[in-house]
Amino acid sequence: MTAGIIKNRGEILRVFGSRQELVGDVLELVEVAISAVEPAGLVGRKLRLSGQTLRAGEASVSLEGVRGVWVVSVGKAAPGMARGALEVLGELVERCVVVAPRGSDFSPVMGRAEMLPSSHPIPDESGLRASYKLIEMLRGASRDTLIVFLLSGGASALLPAPAEGITLEDEAETTRLLLEAGATITELNTVRKHVSAVKGGLLAKAMMPARVLSLIISDVPCDRMDVVGSGPTTPDPSTFRDAQEVLVRYGVWERAPRRVRERIERGVAGLVEETPKPGDPIFSRVTNVIIGGVGEALEAAARRAEELGYRASILSRCFEGEASSLGLFLGSVARELQRSPGTVYLAGGESTVRVVGGGRGGRNQELALAALTKMDGCRNALLAAVGTDGVDGPTDAAGAVVGEELLALAEALRIRPQDYLRANDSYTFFRLVGGHIVTGPTGTNVGDVVFIVSAKAESGPEGG
Asked: Which distant-in-sequence residues (6+ apart) come within 8 Å of 449 by Cβ?
């Protein structure tokens, strides 16, 4: 069932007037994509208990000699993932701990798990408390403990645990500087790993000597498991020098907290131990498995598009880049797509925003607003950009859907999309004109999806 994910469907349909059929199809694809990566369902489909063997995809773990199963779930999808694991494992579960953003729906595990609310995207004291409580628990695991570790996007902020000599404020400020500079998630997490006591494989060290099965829902481009949540249970291929180069590249090295710079400099000089690399013995009892990502969301939406009578093509499962630049390109693609009635292009990934203005917005709203500037005369196509977690930046919107109607409405209000784009104020633009997609937190997170849809020939505004 997908109905009800988008809370303001009626408002969106009113904005687009005569193109309600087309916009209705676009919104259905958004809902299908999000439903396809519902976390309890993903875990339930991929985790199987067969006698004394626990299987996850192609991986398997023997339960012989296991005296206690612990479920630990961290990330934006943590409550749902934990529910899925509890349903599969049942009475085998001895302990269950869930770390998720404040305001998450913990009801799927209410009464069955210890719940540790934390903060996202900037870490705070609640995250520090959750981190230390979790580390203390994990250090109590023994060799006959099996830890089913469930990881989803957002875990980097939710489990701050700064390295020795680094403060929570240092980690938060470094995160803020890189986010505002437009660093990619891979670059941001490269730095985070080197100022943390749990990221970059270090949480696996705290779990020793337990057996660990880590199930990962990816929210990062190309599903790099060492990047999801900053890879707490995976080997880290990045180095202190890489972290330093990221800070220099984005012009924030001199503004980064002194203790962060000092730690990285000492790491580059070999005076601080590197994060554990591939082949490190701490991973000998750890199995990491990607169980879902944006690919599943796109494939489900593509199948639904074809059922609705469209031709569907997935352009990319791992786009990256500056949101406004991507938006300009994709807006031009939307104009061109009018030459191919009844076509859907789908893409997934994660863009970035370089903050130069003082407005409000998120990467999906910024991408959609930039696309809109290229859609004058685009009478037979729409574009939607949405964060599958339902939260686009520090706003209550998940993203936006755009078409030429919004340009006419903006002109009537005597406002220009370009002015709001320069001010990084996409949220205000869509609040004034319309086009916001509002879902609220969805309980899942596989990154962002973009759909470009051209009207079928028989249903275009002028017959195609």
From this structure: 30, 33, 294, 297, 298, 301, 346, 347, 348, 385, 386, 388
For 339-366, how does the pLDDT look when each residue is reduced to its tens digit (9 = 90+)?
999 999 999 999 999 999 999 999 999 9
Rounded CA-CA distance 131/107 in Å is 22
In sign, the C-alpha dihedral spanning 426, 427, 431, 437 is positive
Nearest to 291 by CA among 105, 128, 67, 81: 81
* Cα angle 162, 80, 214; round to 5: 55
What pTM was computed for the model? 0.93
Helices (H), 338-400: 363-372
Paired tokens of 3: 């109905």
- Domains detected in the chain: 9-37+294-459 (3.40.1480.10), 39-161+196-238+275-292 (3.40.50.10180)
Per-residue model confidence as pLDDT tens digits over 131-180: 999 999 999 999 999 999 999 999 999 999 999 999 999 999 999 999 99
In whole angstroms, give the CA distance from residue 49 to residue 230. Answer: 29
Chain-centre distance for alpha carbon 285: 27
Two tokens, residue 208: 């020793």
Residues with Cβ within 8 Å of residue 356, at least 6 apart in sequence: 422, 424
Laid out side by side, the sheet with 436-437 consists of: 311-319, 343-349, 448-454, 381-387, 399-402, 436-437
